[in-house]
Design a protein that fits this description.
By secondary structure, the protein is an alpha/beta fold. It is built from 18 helices and 14 strands. Helix 15 links the parallel strand 12 (about 340-345) and strand 13. It is globular, with a radius of gyration of 23 Å. The chain starts with a helix and ends in a 5-residue tail after the last helix.
Length: about 450
Amino acid sequence: MRAFFVNISDGVLCVYRGLCFLAWPVYPLILWWRLYHGAEDKPWWRQKMGECLPARPKGGVIWMHGVSVGESMALEGVMRALLASGKDTIVLTTSTASSARLWRKKIAACDTLRGRVIHTLCPLDHPLFWRRFLNHWRPRCFLLSEHDFWPHLFWALHNRRIMCTVLGARMSAKSARFWLFVKPLFTSIWRDVVCCVPSDTQASLFKALGARHVHVLGSLKWTKLDPALVQAHNRYPSTPGKTSPMLSKPPFVISAVSTHVGEEKAWLDLYPALKKRYPHLVLILAPRHTKRVSEVCDEVIARGVKVERWQPPLSLKAVEGVVIVDKMGVLRNVYAHSHIVFVGGSLFPGVGGHDLIDPAAYGCCVLCGPFMEAQADVFALFQQKKAVGVVQASTMGEQVSGYLDEQKTCELMGNRAQALVQERYHTVLQGYMTLLTQQGVVHA
């Protein structure tokens, strides 16, 4: 019976390959269309067809891939550990223009990464493009962040016997239904893939797809920010009792980050009353998608409030309105200046929440809404440690005012959150590096 399903899988994959070969003239047209609409950068778009790649260095190459900003940033902790433990060059691929710009800038500015990490765009899923890419780089292994599974990619790795490990492998229930539907495309190649998953629930999903080598190691996001690199920030005064921190140490900064439609409005509805009660309060809004910045700015201006753009060095003491973050890659700088951070995508259903770990690493008092199903495992740990506050849309004003009044509560929550990140960082990173050592990715 197993052989029957493998043969069916191979047949479906052959049909898929044939259709892709017939449609290959369409691929450049798609890229030209995206280039015309600003979704690709002109100097590098041909890399998505396996062309115009950077020169390959001498020695071993480890290939790492994260489809966009969040997934690629999640690789940072493992990347730094690999660089510290060996002499291999790391080729990092991403698929979006925004993540490519972020990593080019990051690599150029960091002595640890410059010369050891090369960024290039990831090819589209076509056998010819993968052949060009793999012939050029000849990686000894492939480390994939969280998701972005493509049949031709996995098949090319399988045929070349290149070890494939998915770090922090995860999928939502909706995605799981899709992958089960297209399971025949992957049945014969999942057996070679090593999946490192954050939870037993995710392990069950990947085993249902046919993955044989599944390890529960925790969320990859715990490893992305070394606590030793985060400077301690003394945000709270030592004045005991129920005293507003704004009265003793202005300004007091609340940042609402990774926000979606409706969440900025909720904070702007609260802003006049909060500002009147706490004159030194500064509100920072960082929409999840920068294309919504103009929309958010219009909402602020319509309320008669001044808009100030995040442009370091920005003196928050001199801010007279609401600060809008209009660029990517600066949230860690925002966290370093924030006392309370609200993590968006969580106040209303539909998104499932975003990353709690980064603001926690900076010792911020972390708040979120009740809809955190996309971050369920991490969220559960934060709740268990009493390191996160949950606010409801209907009672948000009262709850936020309570946190502003109780500075000790904010301080304790920030300390608990930071301690949790420090603990999980070392535990989870050690688990990943132990497995990679056993696989031969890290030379023992």
